[in-house]
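Purpose: get a first structural picture of the assembly so the mutagenesis plan has something to point at.
Setup: three entries, given in the order below. No constraints added.
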Amino acid sequence: MIDHLPALQVVLPLLAAPLLLFMVRWPTLAWAFTTAVAWATFFVAALLLEQVWGGAVISYAHGGWEPPFGIEYRVDTVNAFVLLIIAGISAIVMPFARDSVEQEVDSNRIAWFYSAFLLANAGLLGIAITGDAFNIFVFFEISAIASYALIAMGRDRRALLSSFNYLIMGTIGTTFLLIGIGFMYMMTGTLNLADLAERLPEVRDTTTIRAAFAFIAVGVSLKLALFPLHLWLPNAYTYAPSMVTVFLSATATKVAIYVLLRFFYSVFGAEFSFGELPMDHVLMPLALLGILLPSIVAIFQDDVKRMLAYSSVAQVGYIILGISFATTLGLTASMLHLFNHAITKAALFMALGAIVYQIGGTQLTRMAGIARDMPWTMAAFVIGGLSLIGVPLTAGFITKWYLLLAALDSGYWPIAVFLLATSLLAVIYIWRVVEVAYFRERPADAPVVSEAPLALLLPTWTLALASILFGIYTALPVGAASRAATILMGGY
Amino acid sequence: MEWLGLFNYWVVVVLMMTGFYVVIAQGNLIKKIVGLNIFQTSVFIFYISLSKLEGGTAPIYVEGITAYSNPLPHVLILTAIVVGVALTAVGLALAVRIHEAYGSIEEDEIQAQDEEDARNT
Amino acid sequence: MAIALGLTIPLFGMALMLLFGRWPNLRDTVMVLTAAGMFTTVLQLLPRVAAGERPSLHLFELMPGLSIAFEVEPLGMVFAMVASGLWIVTSLYAIGYMRGAKEKNQTRFYAFFAIALFSALGIAFAQNMFTLFVFYEILSLSTYPLVAHKGNEAAKRGARVYIGLLLGTSIGFMLLAIVGTWWLTGTLDFTDGGIMAGHVGHGMGAVLLVLYMFGIGKAALMPFHRWLPSAMVAPTPVSALLHAVAVVKAGVFTVLKVSIYLFGLDYMKELVTTDWIMYVAAFTMIAASLVAIQQDNLKARLAYSTVSQLSYIVLGAMLVSQLSAIGGGMHIVMHAFGKITLFFCAGAIYVATKKTEISQMDGLGRRMPFTMGAFLLGALCVIGAPPMGGLWSKWHLILGAADTGQLLMIGVFLVSTLLNIAYLIPPVLRAFLRPPKDGYTGGIREAPLLCVAPLTFTALGAFALFFLAGPLRGLLSGMFPA
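Result (structure tokens, whole complex):
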């Protein structure tokens, strides 16, 4: 059983998804079943991380076909950490989902909804766990197709067009990735990532491989919403059902970032990506612009959900910035931010989900004085907001600390200053919400609302407290992130 | 005349650019999906082309033949075709839903409606 | 043990106050008891610190070498005693003021007040710069609701400037300086003699010093002083305890800590920017006084006076002599007693007469003789005239300036003192010597007893400090173990 953990990680949600279609008439049962599967998946991910913590690498050959011929699942600390993030978020979002989904999705579609959720989950986990380039493409599409369906289930009709645009952009992204993989296959005759890493150096100085690199870089950048390829993200996050926003914001872009890391560092090698090709000079300006501009745009949003969506684009910028330093310290910061931002943003979107549940929207005007009626929800939002800003003793601070150290370590003083200045932008957009929610009177014609139900509050608070806990107890995230960074710098 | 030998790759490039252009330039959602399909098809042809070995036959073991075409890209592309079909299905389903919700599948008309909604609230 | 207790008492008190929010009398009793409990706990540390010991408490390690930890040294001891001691008085005063002025949301107000005191104590006892930074930020955040308390447009605007400047400087400059220090030296512990020497070049050190000094926005060096006048929209107890004592003193306390224990005075002497900051402080001192003279609003005048007085202490640190550093430490105490008295008086005047402008104060002395008498004592203390405690701190500061040969700075101190007289004494003269404009003849009608008793007490305290300066100086000399 323990030998088959890597397969179970993906197969569990993948097989459970069609089973849900037998439960179309019993939405609550469908929810319970999905929850059980999500937690089992989380458990598997935790076991996997534990096994590779010491530096071991698990290689799992599907159907007994030895790599590089068969499909290999390959788990080291890097992707075990990513798996834990995905599985953890999907496990914790499930208790939250019941009430929220019941309200936002028609009851005869709930089982379908959860089915799509499990497929998306399986796809994301698959991307992270597989050691096969073509497999990455397939799982990208599995998760993406399921995500399009999930987003389109938002109540607002604008969700449909957002989903459609995401479909177009996402497909272009994955097709680019496919082309890049094709070029690599052409030159090396292998699809196995480890094998690719071994064979690439011989043929590295060819136009074909450079073209492969470019296609992969652009394709994955589209998926991870790197500025200025982020245009699909704000609408998709804004109009998706609350639970979907929580899930996708914490996992989808993160997995794409993982793929970027894998290709840049493990497959092509840091020396090629950042030495022979000037990826650091490409990524760094994009990252800096990607932090600055979306943060400014976020300040002017009237819908808080949309504001946080733009903030997500900015946070991707922080992660990419760490990658562009091409140092162990920079990578540690990026890996750490994958984790910390997932927790923080999920907490924030959950708090907004609770607000949607009670008042039906997240426009700033509707949220005036809401803190009086929903003190717990807003308190969780404030904690998440503080972590997003990077106030000490929150998870966000730890990331910022490492990112600053990485910037100083690479000799980029101005970037350190820039980072601090942009976190003040986060102060502004979070503070706008706080001021409206706490210090403005509830409008006289506003409906009377009460605090969100416990089922929504508990997961929200779990994540809010986690974003404090991981700001104090840093052994797990920092340990995992620095191990992962060392592995990535060392090649495959 | 070497570039003529790469004839199928030129087809790939032309198809790819055509598809890409259609996706970007067309405001009609169905046409966008068509463009996307052309775009993907070019990649399928690309994969199949690269598996072809000059003088190679189908990969069936026959006495006396030593050069085979590579079967793996075909298998990969079968998968990719399935993915493409699924994507088209989802895209079309979305277009139908959008038509139900807005009464149009022209992007600019839909945006105009959204902007009007935003102004009214 | 006493450290942990001192830190938990205000939090515990806050929880109880939230719990008892519905019964104001019970809640207010809890507040006074909390303040008293905190003060006595802090006091228990005094004999040990006076004996040269440094009690410490290690809470947890965030990253290797980076901990939340506490250690009580003389300067922190003094700051802790002042903040917690004056909290008792202020809590009594707050009861009188808040009820007298019929303010809303009193429970929320008191709760955040307790958090502010908690973080002030955390700053006082911090063993390293990181711990100090954490509590510094908690202090900024927890005082925001207090400044925005009234909830009207003016309060929100003031609060926005307040939090914007404090967070902006601390994140933009101080955090950068802290990360830089950590990166260069590998530690952030407060160490006798500093940690920079030998690790940080003089050019880099000079940059770091500037980042620290402007990053500590709470010390209100110009041009980052605007938050302090903005904070005056808050109810008076906040202005009195937080914006004359806890918050601003946390700022200058941090300046002293950074100078003495991070840079080390010897190292700082060699930095070019030390002199620059000194001139900025001197300029702030004079300029803020000149602005203060023009203010008609009493609280605004006091606020600018505070800006000016804070620069005394920054200047004391920048003179880089032990004498002036001790003088700066003493000034924390002296100015605290003087200025809190003045703010208490301003609040009492507001509660009794709703007057806020100095031009309305004609003849007020006949109606409120105790309040105005205390105002005179407080003013004298801030000016540094005998027989008030303020004399001794200024004495040491000037001696320090003479010691290092900064004759220009002696001149600045003297000019500033003259300006102090020019803006603090006229209100007293108006109140006692001019006839009331509105023809008031109703005899003595003071503010409620709970307002007047505390201000009388602090005024007497400022007087008593004239005689207690010796022991205080002895305690503070412990900052520089031979």
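The radius of gyration of chain C is 21 Å.
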